[in-house]
Fold these 2 entries.
Entry 1:
Amino acid sequence: MIIVKWYCKDKKSDIINTGLKILMILLSAAIFSAASSAAFAEPRKEITVSAAMSLKNGFQEIGKVFEAKHGGVKVRFNFGASGDLIRQIEGGAPVSVFASASPREMDELESRGLIISGSRIDFASNSLVVVVPSGSSHRIGSFGDLASDGVRRIAVGNFKTSPVGRYAEEAFQYYKILPSIKGKLIFAENVRQVLDYVARKEADAGIVYATDAKFRINEAKIAAVADKRSHGRIIYSLAKIKNSSDEKLAGEFMDFMLSKEGRNILGKYGFIPMSYK
């Protein structure tokens, strides 16, 4: 140990020495106080919301507004194809809220007992459309036109894991063109990847939701809208997942989603909010 002694030859030195000691005491107290506050501060609350890729823009805005209304809360989003997301949940991914683009995925989770009973609700709907690159010379006025010789590549979602792909397959069967276009299909993992293929002109056409078509209007345009009878109704479902990190906060997020403010945000992005009790 090194001992440092201060030798004060006059009163001025005594004053300086005393001031330094006081300063050191105050500094030590401040450091201790900050350390104590950090140690005993309430941890920041957060929830993870897994949602269909088509909900990305609307949910991101809803998340920001929700965080602003709940100081210290963080909403983490995980977007992807609904089929891939339920595989993650079934594998134990730490998800608090799940929003699917089809009832089928929610049915599967419910049958496995992975959602909180009574928390499931249908909250919005959408439309299925054909998009083509802006400036395209292809004359596509209906789904049936996809079978024409001029259309060589058609981007679609994965039939097994992506609801938009499944709806597209149903529409192809309804219009009786699936056998003739099978060799033209380019499969994507989710609806935004389908849109990317079309926007980059890597596909002559693609099947997406009407809401997604709004985000690349300078690069892709709607050429045709599917008859509602051609596919299952596009319904978005919402539910709390069991073993959530914060079930109360998950419920509050869902309540905000379903509030007038939340529905207005979804409506701004083209979704059709559904009525509910």
Entry 2:
Amino acid sequence: MREWSELSAVVTGGAGFLGSHVTRKLQDRGCTKLFVPRSTEYDLCDRDAIIRLYEKTRPQIVIHLAATVGGIAANKASPGRYFYDNALMGIQLIEYGRLFGVEKMVVVGTTCSYPKFCPTPFREEDLWNGYPDETTAPYGLAKKMLLVQGQVYRKQYGFQTIHLLPANLFGPGDNFDYATSHVVPALIRRFVETRERGEKKIDLWGDGSQTREFLYVEDAAEGILLATERYDGPEPVNLGTGQETRMKDLAELIGEVTGFEGEFRWDTSKPVGQPRRCLDVSKAREFFGFEATHTLREGIQASVDWFLKHRETASRPRV
């Protein structure tokens, strides 16, 4: 790939949680012709808006991060929206990217695309060996279709598209709105507010045995750019740490960092999603030299510090 200083780039979702880290790293790499479409001007579910975007920017690189996302409760409440928005945005961006001569399309998918009972660590070859967990399947399948689109467009049109599967992201700038947040920011806010109210018990979903893998947002941004620069293959690639964490251990760590010293009460009647989640990250290391550098504790501490400093705005609903 040519130097970033010679390239024009569009980053959808570039003003968001992950996108802000990606755009900052792009600027640090010398990318001056960088455009971040805002949803108020470019509705990426609207074909005409995508055409306007490409006509205005004529990008050589597109990094597609924009998505309608949320935790388990949000996915259960709006499965149709999560399927429609994510499928339509990606399908049209890829199609018109091809028509407008984009040189490389980078699509960031989701580990929710993996089968519900996938053996751990998840290997990219296992992606099609079963149906995703029902709570997040519409979102996961919508993203999975973009992988298929990228592969067949590569085969028929020679259109260069890569597909990345990051672990659960967290870090400063995350979404702390209870209605749509993921597990780490939701727990941080809950622990902080419970401690401040002087309460000694906190209710948590599941039994604590379910697992996830967590990737610090800055590491994820670096992995995406390394893949953009160095990877040209048709197969999806996991981005993560390769470290599996039980929800019980995560809760204890967040409790420790936030200063909550009370009792955990696990509610097994609540949905918990996929029972286990941990990635085989060997291909990212082999294909483009990516390895995460932040520990879970470091990331949690940075996330808590950021939330305490920005809690008023961080807790507002995101639309």
